Amino acid sequence: MTEAAVETIQREMTAFARRARASAGRMHPELSLVSYTLLGHLEESGGLRATDLAAHYALDKSTVSRQVTTLERAGLVERRRDPEDHRVQLLHLTEAGRRILAQVSVRRRAAVQERLVDWAQEDLERFAAYLVRYNARSGAGTEDD
Amino acid sequence: MTEAAVETIQREMTAFARRARASAGRMHPELSLVSYTLLGHLEESGGLRATDLAAHYALDKSTVSRQVTTLERAGLVERRRDPEDHRVQLLHLTEAGRRILAQVSVRRRAAVQERLVDWAQEDLERFAAYLVRYNARSGAGTEDD
DNA sequence: CGCACCAAGTTGTATTATGCAACCAGAAGA
DNA sequence: TCTTCTGGTTGCATAATACAACTTGGTGCG
What we know:
The structure is a homodimer of 145-residue chains.
Chain A: H1 2-27, H2 33-44, E1 48-49, H3 50-57, H4 61-73, E2 77-81, E3 89-93, H5 95-115, H6 121-140
Antiparallel strand pairs in A: 1-3, 2-3
Chain A binds a DNA duplex (30 and 30 nucleotides) through residues 21-22, 25, 32, 34, 49-51, 59-69, 85-89.
């Protein structure tokens, strides 16, 4: 039955989330899971507004504000005033930010890879595809949950 | 290439993690994401030790202990002394716990299901199986990650 | 223009989850 | 018995977060 599968997916995803959070601290002392994710986001599309990030991650703007402050103090991101609208700050990765992000990514990927070492290539690809499909939907959609 | 699939899995899992975290609070006033997940776990296999839960979710035993305390005070779980080993408490859902869990499950499943609505049954099951496999490894294994 | 309202961010405050370390109680083995 | 191990609890500190009040800049309408 679909019910069971859905239930399992929901629970296992949650379990993963827990683990991801737990392991995040060991990746880089300076970089929490959220910070890391924010950096990753900025890497892909520089010049984001804090509000965009908040919306995207369903976080309060105050939370993002503080996270960004931390990242800025660590020298990993830069706030640039938007000349078009002086309320807005466009966030950009610094060189240091880019470097650190690359470092952490490598380490993170290694950790994941270790757990996937005995998977068949075909399964890996299917699993990856499923995850993309799942997340694509939640990312694009109505921004709830 | 394995690299690409691993990279994708890593990224997508992380993406999910942040969202799960973000949406955690809004399901049931009484039930945090973790509590809910713990309940779900107990439903499937009653008589778990707190330590088992801690290991599975990569949580500190103190955290689990407190969560269980909360759940117990809410009347949702029961601690039963293991007659074999008096250090151990076997955790069981109460009737109320079962009821609440069912309620929340419905709501939550609806949310997840909405995202999975156009998936083929076969894909759902495979996805679920992959997640289980992935998590099983990190849970049973070397406890790092 | 000037005033009312909206939007982006910041800061104060409280809550909650969490980990770590110290501790207690029961079990197991020498 | 004494030592060591394991399951669990509690004290303490920290980090992430939400919410609300506030500041500053933009927009629109009279």
